[in-house]
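Batch 3, record 17
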Amino acid sequence: MWEVLQFEFMRNALFAGILVSITCGIIGTLVVVNRIVFISGGIAHAAYGGIGMAFYTGLPPFLGAALFSFAVSMVMGVASLRDKQRVDAIIGVMWAIGMALGIIFIDLTPGYHVDLMSYLFGSILTVVTMDIWFMLSLNMILILIVFVFYKEFLAVSYDEEFSFVVGIPVRTLYFVLLGMIALSVVMIIKIVGIILVIALISIPPYIAEKYTTSLGKMMILSSVLGILFTLAGLWLSYNYDLTSGATIILVAGLGFFVSLASDFIRRPSTESPS
Amino acid sequence: METYAIEFEDVWFSYEKSTVLQEVSFSLEQGEFLGIIGPNGGGKTTLLKLMLGILKPDRGRIRILGQAPHDAGHRMGYVPQGTDFNRNFPVSVLDVALMGRMSTSRIGRRYSREDREKVRDVLEKVGMWGYRNRPIGRLSGGQRQRVFIARALATHPEILFLDEPTASVDSEFQTDLYDFLKDLNKEVTIVVISHDIGIISAHMKSIACVNKRLIFHSGAEITQEMLDTAYQCPVDLIAHGLPHRVLHSHQEE
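Prediction for the assembled complex:
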């Protein structure tokens, strides 16, 4: 199987898969423990609006997506603090409007029509060296931010009220997290596409949480699981000529069900009479 | 004159359009042990959140140790209600207790040796040092409550707030807890919210009953007048070990 690595696009796909898995491990862990998977999905889908606008105005599509999803993430942050009771409805609305905007802008763009599918399901095999450098720098920034503010992110995720009382800027950290999600999402879209972002953000941390005792270890295990799923998915998609993004997600989904099943089997022994 | 631990002056608070607290005024001296009782939905937790600065009053003035609540954050310890939240969260006892050492001025810095020593002290004090590496979710309700008390004490507070500390713990732990708090009260002002009036009257120095309005009583007895004026707080009184229900007929509005 190693001979496939003589192709540059396969090597790039491999690197991209590893880098994206690390991003998903770190950001996904924070997303899952803060219960903001839905907001992350909203940001990812609204990003399509940015891609559409970028095509219309002639900007690079991923720059458009980054700017737009960053803006959307901030608006969602404000909305979720303003109206906690109806935050899911507001996110749903922005989710839909973002996608619709993207489609309309692409309709209005003269000339050739972009391949919508590659944004919906990703295109890991078209990753170029430039993308790898971009992903690497983004990963460095994310790791640095999370490392420096680790104890604050941990405390705010675990007990927001207590953190507020002792003087941690809870809201600022929340917006920093949303901003990091927005930038990560843009990178993940390249690999698995808009529709499957949520899976790669939530499946590895969900599994990892059960086997770890700290947020840091959860991030590391999530990253490792993500790498396994991505590489296995990539290998299967190459060998059986399947869509890579969807294959990666199905492998992750298989991991998810295996972990659920192992819970089910382990449960009788762990819940012995207390 | 020494500053009051807590001062409320004509404080009003409402969610949307329904008034939760009105005309709340009282002052609590330092070194006090205050029990706050009242029916569910009577505004106990809202009152606590106002003291902690988590909520802001619509009207009126609140001072904690002479400061605005949010500025006094590092002088307050907070033990939240509901030790059941976030049971699956991957965090150890030690890491939870260390959260008490956070402060605005040290954001982005590692915990120091002094922080770790302080946390060791408080975990030993509540008898949880031996459990420091356990995931918090695998402890019993009473053990978790101890860890949250340790976390609050790690901030080295001048006032300690506890929200329903005996909900969901066994009665043995309740007795231990109040003996522990009584001892702690020699140095720290303590405010406890509880629906259990028996516990309150046995241990507190003063009592406030809250049901939209607040009746403050310096002294540990719960008077008939107090119950009546406080819109007849429904209470369970335990007298001489026999359950004895003192529930005044409640006129529904």
